Amino acid sequence: MTMDRRSVLGLGGVLAAGLVLAPGMRLVAAPENVTEASDKRRWGMLIDTTHCDAACTACTQACRTENNVSIVGDPQRDIHWIRKVDLHDKDGRKPDRSLPVLCNHCEHPPCVHVCPTEASFIRKDGIVLVDMHRCIGCRYCMIACPYKARSLVYSKPKVPPDANTRVPIRAKGVVEKCTFCVHRIDDGGEPACVEACRKDGGGSMLFGDINDPNSEISKRIREVSTTTIRADLGLKPRVHYQGI
Asked: CA–CA separation, 230 vs 147, rounded Å?
């Protein structure tokens, strides 16, 4: 059986609506405790590099497991939604640091501005996402991103036997990146990398609503000296770093 793209998208609308097919049968059940995107919230992350061990990979491994992103074995085509970077001060005035780098979910994301199909977009709560049904794989967004946070899926992704069914099936020929684990946020949770860092790493990652002055992340940003990567570009990234 084959279906054209219009039919598939139409079916997706039916599924999203949770159409009742027969008494007692429903294709999609609405999840409980769903947190809808709101322009009153702005999700952000604070990473304390002073507690990030260069040998620790808790965040990167958790991201791969959660989002079914596997290593294909080709350094030129391996996809990293989050990666560890070693930072060295060329003047030797600051200690070397190791820090996770991911999509910064900027307030003014250049990836969104250059996308010709509007596949890259900003959700109401500030999370930058990619609609894989609109993406044509032109890679303009990859060139525009100053954080090297986007990757093109060159080959059909392998689906792990224990794949997480809460995330969409990844597709060949489209660009993908960190989503802040939006499916977890909408269920009232936090990104997998943050959870893993707290449980198995150094506890250096903090996530929350930076619009809420009483949130833990807002208080920390006010209390400690933080910076963002390439703040000079005026993109207003929402990933903050302490200790660099």
From this structure: 9
Q: pLDDT tens digits, residue range 120-161?
A: 999 999 999 999 999 999 999 999 999 999 999 999 888 888
CB 88 within 8 A of CB 96: yes
d(CA 181, CA 167): 9
Same domain, 71 and 16: no
Domain encompassing residue 18: 1-30
Claim to verify: residue 177 and residue 216 sit in the same structural domain: yes
User: In angstroms, rounded to a whole number, what is the distance separating the alpha carbons of residues 243 and 232?
Assistant: 18
Please identify which residue in the block is written with the tokens 């997480």: 164
Total tally of structural domains belonging to the chain = 2
List CB contacts of 208: < 8 A, sequence separation 6 or more. 43, 44, 215, 216, 217, 218
For residue range 37-78, list pLDDT tens digits in order.
778 899 999 999 999 999 999 999 999 999 999 887 888 889
